[in-house]
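Exercise 4. Each item below gives a protein and its sequence. For each, produce the structure-token representation.

Item: Na+/H+ antiporter NhaC (Colwellia psychrerythraea).
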Amino acid sequence: MSELNQTKKATMLDALIPVFTLITLLTLAVNYFGDNSSYGPNQIALLVSMGVAIAIGIKNGYKWHDIEKAIINGISLSLGAVLILLAVGSLIGTWLLSGTVPTMIYYGLMVLDPSWFYAAACVMCAIVSMSIGSSWTTAATIGVALIGIAQGLGLSPAITAGAVISGAYFGDKISPLSETTNLAPAIAGSELFSHIRYMFWTTMPSISTALVLFLILGFTETTGSNDQSIELLSKQLSEQFNLSLLNLVPLFVLLALAIKKVPAFPAVAIGALIGGLWAVFFQQELILRLANGETDSLTANIMVVWTTFFDGVSIETGNNELNKLLSGGGMSSMLNTVWLIMCALSFGAVLEHLGMLKKFVETILASAKTTGSLIASTVATCIGTNILTADQYMAIVMPGRMYKEEYERRGLDPLVLSRTLEDAATITSPLIPWNTCAVYMSGVLLVNPLDYMFYCFFNWINPILAVIYGFIGFNIKKLTSKKTKVTIQEATV
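Answer:
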């Protein structure tokens, strides 16, 4: 007899117990450990909650061997992201050493005004992300530099991170090069470019409102910097690095690779390698200083660049704030992020295998009687899946599969489902501290998700607007007899 015939279906109580356990432990972790909660406490909370779910699953007749397989499969989903994270760590390190990031900061200090900096940061990230279809690459390149510029201008890193993420996810969301933008219509059965055009009805008002809010913050905030301090910071940067527009070549190479649709891992890895090469070409004085003059020139170059790839760079300038700005990166800087991702995906995989996620959706569908409540339920399910599985792709695929037939039964065009999946799943992922996207953004931008999440205005406004549209019936497309079906196999993901 198969395991399915031997197991009992999860009850709502079964599904709620591990979720409430997680919420309780995460709350305690933040209360006791504060900003350090993501450096161990959250991981333990996820593993303990997973243990509670496993105990309930065994009570319901599931075998440990099959649960273990589900955990391994869940972790395997993160391996692509892990490779990208390690490559990004090396890229940040070599781009600091090569002067690429310092050059972006140096020129950014010259041209960006504090009053409209947040709005400009949002627009810049939106343009780059739309061009390359990757919010992650945008944050790791332009985003890192903007955080540095903000510190130099005496502006809030948390608000800057919110502006970076808002712009990056807006651009990612409407780019035909984006994986999630291809995945959502593939799951829902709509056509890619029709899906993108249909999303403009929710994305444009959302990003416009966000830009207004960033402008208000910029014009009302009192900065902790002035022209004299900016001039001093620029001088210190020029003293530490050989600054030149040539230092931006690694950035343009990476953007070109992304536009050419080179997969993220090799593209970022190539960007990191070029950064290391550029450091050897243009930053010899810095490399010799970091080597402390204890070796010959050849050995110094090999040792410093090699170390930068795995452990980042640490530059001592005599200015503590500048030290923080110019130090970091390396694969080792991403290990805690990898740890958190693996724990979160393991927890989500167990909940899915034990049927607990399905139980939540079945209960929600039973109460969704109107179009507005159906869209609100889809939004809630996507956000809930982001919370429980810690993965934006799962938050698109699972609700998409579960709700597709219901949307069709109610005469709604697949575009309504595909747009709702993106409005809710893709852009809320960086708001959940243990989600892979939030962990990545925090690791790259060095800002705690609990600090930046309130300033990701676009990411908050968009799902709220989707629900409002559903209840007032605005721009809700009805199903017609002639529809082009797109299967997940036909989509480019």
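Check: DSSP finds 25 helices and no strands in the chain.
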